[in-house]
């Protein structure tokens, strides 16, 4: 009877250990499960508009959902949206040219790992480091207006979609001012390469500065 009893006790001990490990793993994953939204400027490097072209940009909006891998690592899926508008006015008279407006939308889907090097889940002030990559779509929306003598040239419009990919890395911090909400402030460098010319260039790169909120999912 001694051997079966000992074997049964050993199996119960192993089951208890596995259960404890599973519980700890689940708690760590839930502690990092969150979603958020940030907004801020993307300052492009190395792209200069042609002479006589008016340029305006929209801030980059970045939304993400993440789940914990352990108490210091989280896997994040996010989408960033940014727009640049370039426009040239139509000119009249003999030899006039039509005006054109080009709205270039960059929609970048990224999968990233967010690492918290100094804190476990639950700290109020949490510095982070992030790195990731993903597919990107460039949406070119062009509209041409009449020009030439008396604006007689015909106008037109069209939308083109150019695929590409993006790499990004960044640093920042989250300050949890409540159990579920944090102020998220950071900076990341995004490098995007399109497979064809998009809005006058193939490579878009530069630092993006962001601020927003993170919401931590809670289950009790």
UniProtKB/TrEMBL annotation:
Stretch list, region Disordered: 1-24
Protein name per its UniProtKB record: Outer membrane protein beta-barrel domain-containing protein
Domain of life: Bacteria
Entry-linked Gene3D superfamilies: 2.40.160.20
Provenance organism: Pseudogemmatithrix spongiicola
């Amino acid at each position: 009877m001694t051997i079966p009893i000992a074997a049964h006790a050993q199996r119960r001990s192993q089951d208890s250990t596995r259960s404890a490990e599973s519980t700890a793993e689940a708690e760590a994953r839930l502690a990092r499960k969150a979603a958020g939204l940030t907004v801020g400027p993307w300052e492009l490097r190395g792209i200069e508009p042609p002479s006589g072209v008016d340029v305006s940009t929209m801030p980059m909006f970045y939304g993400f959902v993440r789940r914990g891998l352990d108490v210091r690592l989280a896997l994040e899926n996010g989408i960033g949206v940014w727009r640049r508008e370039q426009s040239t006015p139509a000119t009249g008279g003999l030899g006039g040219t039509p005006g054109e407006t080009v709205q270039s939308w960059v929609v970048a889907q990224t999968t990233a790992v967010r690492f918290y090097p100094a804190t476990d889940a639950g700290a109020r002030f949490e510095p982070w480091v992030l790195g990731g990559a993903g597919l990107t779509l460039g949406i070119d929306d062009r509209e041409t207006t009449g020009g030439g003598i008396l604006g007689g040239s015909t106008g037109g419009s069209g939308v083109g979609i150019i695929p590409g990919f993006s790499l990004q890395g960044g640093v920042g911090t989250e300050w949890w001012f409540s159990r579920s909400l944090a102020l998220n402030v950071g900076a990341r460098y995004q490098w995007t390469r399109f497979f064809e010319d998009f809005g006058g260039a193939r490579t878009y790169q530069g630092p993006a500065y962001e601020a927003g909120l993170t919401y931590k999912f809670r289950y009790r």
